[in-house]
Design goal:
Elements (H helix, E strand, L loop, with lengths): L1 H12 L5 E3 L12 H8 L3 H21 L4 E5 L2 E3 L1 H4 L6 E5 L3 E3 L13 H9 L1 H8 L5 E2 H7 L4 E3 L4 H8 L7 H12 L3 H19 L2 H17 L1
Parallel strand pairs: 1-2, 2-4, 3-5, 4-7
Antiparallel strand pairs: 5-6
Helix pairs in contact: 1-3, 2-11, 3-10, 5-6, 5-10
């Protein structure tokens, strides 16, 4: 998260007109690494939970306030925070093999990435609850139908399709940034408040011993399944 944030900080002040967020390989993002989180929380849960909360909060807030357009190309799975931040970006393209899942309750967590606000607004409350509470695994076409993704392309031609559609390189930077600012103006305060609430709940989950037990159980189940 810190590395992505650092890259965005550089892009915010250089002469680029937009950011293309993509991956090398076949997995877009598997979300938070709970093996690492458990190790951090093992010795001083209170201090570690505050640090983790701040990291996630700052990461998400940077997407909220980032002034340049962010275009996302999704190949493969986008899980947890990797899926929940997508509505904070401006254009999301996916190949037909991409899928999206936010199975927070399965590993004893609560939603993040402002998804408690963005998902109901984008896809309706019923579908949002399926994603955030029931952990519905949504394929690329379903994500497009629900509004989480802009367009879906064939895997074989995905990179070419993305490159062809990036036409804003010739647009005026001032116009691009101010157009985005107008679209986001009424939402940013609400998004920041949602991020604050979500991170506060995560901290409350991580701090007590019971929260650790849920995560340890999830990590152990992963090991057993492997």
């Amino acid at each position: 998260m810190n590395e992505v944030k650092s890259a965005l900080e550089i892009a915010a002040v250089d002469d680029s007109k937009f950011v293309l967020l993509s991956v090398v390989g076949s997995v877009f993002c598997c979300g938070l690494d709970f093996d690492i989180i458990v190790k951090h929380l093992k010795y001083n849960r209170k201090r570690a939970s505050v640090k983790l909360e701040d990291t996630i909060k700052n990461f998400v807030n940077f997407f909220i306030v980032f002034m340049k357009p962010v275009i996302v190309s999704v190949k493969g799975p986008a899980i947890g925070l990797g899926a929940s931040i997508l509505p904070l970006c401006d254009v999301v393209w996916a190949n037909e093999k991409a899928w999206f899942q936010t199975p927070y309750t399965r590993f004893g967590q609560s939603p993040d990435g402002c998804s408690t606000i963005t998902f109901p607004k984008i896809m309706g409350r019923a579908a949002a609850n399926e994603m955030l509470i029931n952990g519905w695994k949504m394929n690329a076409q379903e994500a497009c139908d629900k509004g989480l993704v802009s367009q879906v392309f064939w895997s074989e031609t995905f990179t070419q399709e993305v490159m062809v559609r990036i036409q804003i390189t010739s647009f005026n930077s001032f116009v691009l940034e101010n157009s985005k600012a107008l679209v986001c103006y009424n939402m940013n305060v609400e998004l920041k408040q949602a991020n604050e609430r979500e991170c506060e709940v995560l901290k409350k989950i991580w701090a007590p011993a019971q929260g650790m037990e849920y995560m340890l159980k999830y990590v152990q189940n992963k090991i057993d399944a492997f």
